[in-house]
Amino acid sequence: PFLRVNPSAKITSMGGAGTATADDTTALFLNPAGLSEATGPELSASYSILPAGTGEAFVAACLPLKDDPDTPGFALGVSLAYLMYGTMYLTDLSSSSTTTFSASDMAVTGALSIPISSGFLLGAAGKMASQKIGDDSLSSFGFDFGLKIYLTEALSLGAAFQNLMSLKDGSGAPTNLRGGLGLAVPVDDAVFAVASADVMFPL
């Protein structure tokens, strides 16, 4: 479930949607194909306060390797998501507190994106996810794959397979298939009004 938690304020403000519109560091979570549209180097960081005393930190960076910032091109990205559960109490059958422990989840992702044409983008990401509860820990490696297609200059489709991995304890990973439709309408030379809708299917 940790790998399905929206890691940044921008993604949360869009209701978790953006598979077809992500074009910056948020593409590392939503759809790696969108990295191709980053207009320049970017570094972002956020911290989300979640229920039950938990919180998630998210740091991401992307580096487009292209000459024209307005044209999709080859791009690289990396991100770190860290979910902290705070201090918890281990109790005995009498419910008296005996000791405390902490728990956390972490995911490190590296991604690349490349345009096949001006209206067809592909992306792939590799990730290492780990979970720690007290003295016990579990880790695994996995992959994301995404594509983005422009139907018109303003209207786009996106799709991504996420968290393709097998956990070492044999349990299933939170694998997703997500798809989206996006509309980006220019308000002026530097500002766009963006609408995005996503559907997600846990696999």
Give a summary of the structure in a few sentences.
The chain has 2 helices and 9 strands. It is mostly beta strands and 203 residues long.
Tell me about this structure:
- With 203 residues, this protein is mainly beta.
- 4% of the residues lie in helices and 58% in strands.
- The chain has 2 helices and 9 strands.
- The chain has a 9-stranded antiparallel β-sheet with strand order 1-2-3-4-5-6-7-8-9, with no helix packed on it.
- The protein starts with 8 loop residues before the first helix and ends with a strand.
Topology:
Layout: H1 9-13, H2 27-30, E1 42-49, E2 55-64, E3 75-91, E4 97-117, E5 120-133, E6 136-150, E7 155-165, E8 176-186, E9 192-202
Antiparallel strand pairs: 1-2, 2-3, 3-4, 4-5, 5-6, 6-7, 7-8, 8-9
Task: Provide keyphrases for this structure.
single chain, 203 residues, mainly beta, nine-stranded antiparallel sheet, 2 helices, 4% helix, elongated
The total count of helices amounts to: 2
Q: Termini, distance in Å?
A: 12 Å
Q: Mean of residue pLDDT?
A: 90
Characterize the main sheet.
9 strands, antiparallel
Strand content: over 45%
The count of β-strands is 9
**How are helices and strands ordered from N to C?**
HHEEEEEEEEE
Bin the helical content: under 10%
